[in-house]
Amino acid sequence: MPVAANDVIKRIVDDRLLGSDNLMDFRAEIDDAARFFRAWMDRPMEIGAIAPSGAALAAAVASEVDETADGLVIELGPGTGAVTHALLQHGIAPERLVLIEFNDYFCDLLRQRYPGVQIVQGDAYHLARCLDGLGLPLASAVVSGLPLYSRPVRERISLLRDAFAYMERGAPFIQFTYAVTSPIPRATPGVISNGSAPVWLNLPPARIWTYRDATRIA
Ligand SMILES: C[S@@+](CC[C@H](N)C(=O)[O-])C[C@H]1O[C@@H](n2cnc3c(N)ncnc32)[C@H](O)[C@@H]1O
After folding, report:
1. Ligand 1 atom closest to Cα of 61?
2. Number of C-beta neighbours around residue 102 at 10 A
């Protein structure tokens, strides 16, 4: 986005927010939206959305994670940290969080914003390269904001099966999508899937899918 256009958007939002207690939060949101949009212009298929998830969707995703469990929570494709923030708000301790993000600009931002959270810069479709050698315990949940539909279905299924190997028995792989259908076909052998009702408060409305390894359910 040209810098001038960015400044105009900021000014409009600032004007609307004069007197708000949450001006700083709103400024940060607008900055994130501008960063995200620029990243999307450079690599639309990789970023997969023109703006970060809204607070309602991020909170709905985070609420699928058991905050009382002990295991890690691995987040794939955290972007500017909309869902990361919601996970922390939900009660997940920073030291339980491991973020895997491709984009170097987002990684730098996440490191500044979330000290204490482990950030791995790498390709989530190569989980072994990202995680092996770190000596981490198994995850009690994986949360993904990856734009799965930009990849062939066999790569999506392969990512899910790879993730199951790093997860505790029965742990959920939580994926949100703007599509109506599940990015992992529902008839995929060995996978139990559940879809949420649409989260209407997000624009565009999104759905949250939860996948579990059917071969490791008690
Ligand atoms: C749709 S955005 C979601 C961002 C954030 N979770 C949110 O809800 O606002 C997708 C994110 O996944 C990242 N991403 C895409 N492909 C990736 C890959 N193969 N490995 C790691 N991160 C990836 C992008 O850089 C981007 O930050």
Report:
1. 8
2. 18
